[in-house]
Design a protein that fits this description.
The chain has 443 residues and is an alpha/beta fold. Helices cover 38% and strands 12% of the residues. The N terminus is likely disordered.
């Protein structure tokens, strides 16, 4: 390892005599802060959203599975300092980048958040700092995009500063796998960077998995999420076929998963949601085109998954027609705006596309979600200004149709089916409901 001006040493990491800075305090960054605080490390949190910083300074959380009590304790013990002052990026010994990597309207990678963060770090970069990109992106981003910006400071990687990639593996709302309990894949720009990054993460996570390059680590995350997207597409297509053949796809899956080898259960839904699975395969197809290759299998999976909201709406229209009603003018209540059950994360939720399609067809929509009191503005959707409705008997009975988009545990499905005229279930949430099953349609 280089000496001289390098302030970050293995000894300081082992003694936890360092400050870890996390840029981007969302669903990835804040749990990462928790992992390092639990390990006894001092942390700084950077975010350009002053509202988030103000809440954190007041000891308040804006993420459901990160209790406010935790943040208040971090502040009281002086283990966490939130700030919007990016000029202070010179203070942490290690900087972990956890900013969004969305798609453009043309489904190309949008690296603007990564690039702007790299420029802010470069402006404050000092010898000895370790920079780790965690944002999901295509193979080559760390080397081809982040490195040149950082070296524009005049400092050199592997000598003056260190650079690595370690993909986030956050599963919001899953108490069995927190940030500290999930193995961390790490790829370094050079051997020194890899060793330092592995030493850092080994203090806070259950296991560190070093790989030969940043590109391997970047590809690892893309493969993980593309694997899920492809298998979800398979069961979504199977769902449509089973429907035409008069079978229940969920019963078929339950039967198949009794096989103790060679099968992993994936489940259909109204579309893909979350920041990763709907987006990451497009990063892979984009970089494949750059290398003169088409990824037909992955692109087909994307087409199938993207078509599921329309399939659900078509099923809803058919069910309304059976009751001599049209979509236009019908009242449709959407249950769940979060992308998965029991979380407050609405990113890329299929509920928003369902809303757009239903409104376009003339339906009068409303929604209920115990985790999302008001619909937030979304990047790719024209979101209506709506507040969550209480699931009273009167509200349910006033609706022509109730569409279950997210199967939150807080929903009382017996009560919902009892009081609704028609229920469209996209998640098999009503599987244990015994009464009034004639009101339920699977979609």
């Amino acid at each position: 390892m280089e000496t001289g001006d390098c302030l970050l040493t293995f000894q300081r990491i082992r003694e936890k005599d360092i400050v870890v800075g996390v840029v981007g305090l969302g669903y990835v960054g804040l749990p990462l802060i928790q992992a390092f605080v639990r390990a006894g490390t001092r942390t700084m949190g950077f975010d350009i959203d002053q509202n988030k910083i103000n809440l954190l300074k007041a000891g308040q959380s804006y993420i459901g599975h990160i209790p406010s009590e935790w943040i208040a304790t971090w502040l009281r013990e002086e283990r966490f300092e939130p700030t919007a002052e990016m000029s202070r990026l010179q203070e942490p010994d290690a900087i972990l980048i956890c900013v969004p990597t969305p798609l453009t309207d043309s489904r190309d990678p949008d690296l603007s958040y990564i690039e702007s963060t790299a420029r802010q770090i470069a402006a404050a970069l000092r010898p000895g700092q370790l920079i780790v990109l965690e944002s999901t992106t295509y193979p080559g981003t760390t080397r081809d995009v982040v490195l040149p910006i950082l070296e524009g400071s005049g400092l050199k990687v592997g000598k003056d500063f260190f650079l690595a990639f370690s993909p986030e593996r956050e599963d919001p709302g899953n108490p069995n796998y927190t940030a500290s309990g999930i193995p961390k894949v790490v790829g370094g720009m050079d051997p020194q960077s890899l060793e330092l990054a592995c030493a850092l993460y080994s203090q806070a996570v259950v296991k560190v998995v070093p790989v030969s390059s940043c590109e391997v680590a970047e590809a690892c995350k893309i493969l993980e999420n593309t694997y899920r997207a492809v298998n979800i597409a398979l069961v979504n297509e199977m769902k449509v076929l089973c429907d035409r053949m008069g079978m229940d796809i969920w019963e078929v899956i339950d039967a198949a998963k009794t096989k103790p080898f060679g099968f992993q259960a994936f489940y259909p839904g109204p579309g893909l949601g979350g920041h990763c699975i709907p987006i990451d395969p497009f990063y892979l197809t984009w970089v494949a085109r750059k290398h003169g290759m088409t990824t037909r299998f992955i692109e087909l999976a994307g087409e199938i998954n993207a078509g599921m909201p329309q399939y659900v709406v078509n099923r809803l229209i058919e069910a309304l027609n059976d009751q001599s009603k049209s979509l236009r003018g019908s009242k449709v209540a959407i249950l769940g705006a979060a992308y998965k059950k029991d979380v407050d994360d609405p990113r890329e939720s299929p509920a928003f596309e369902l809303m757009e399609l239903l409104q376009r067809g003339g339906a009068e929509i409303s929604y209920s979600d115990p985790f999302i009191s008001r619909l937030p503005a979304m990047r790719h959707f024209d979101v209506p200004s709506l507040e969550s409705q209480a699931l009273t008997a009167e509200y349910l009975m006033s609706q022509d149709c109730v569409l279950i988009a997210t199967d939150h545990s807080a929903f009382d499905y017996d009560f919902i089916v009892k009081n609704a005229i028609l229920v469209i279930d996209t998640r098999n949430a009503t599987r244990n409901v015994k009464s009034h099953r004639d009101r339920i349609r699977k979609a």
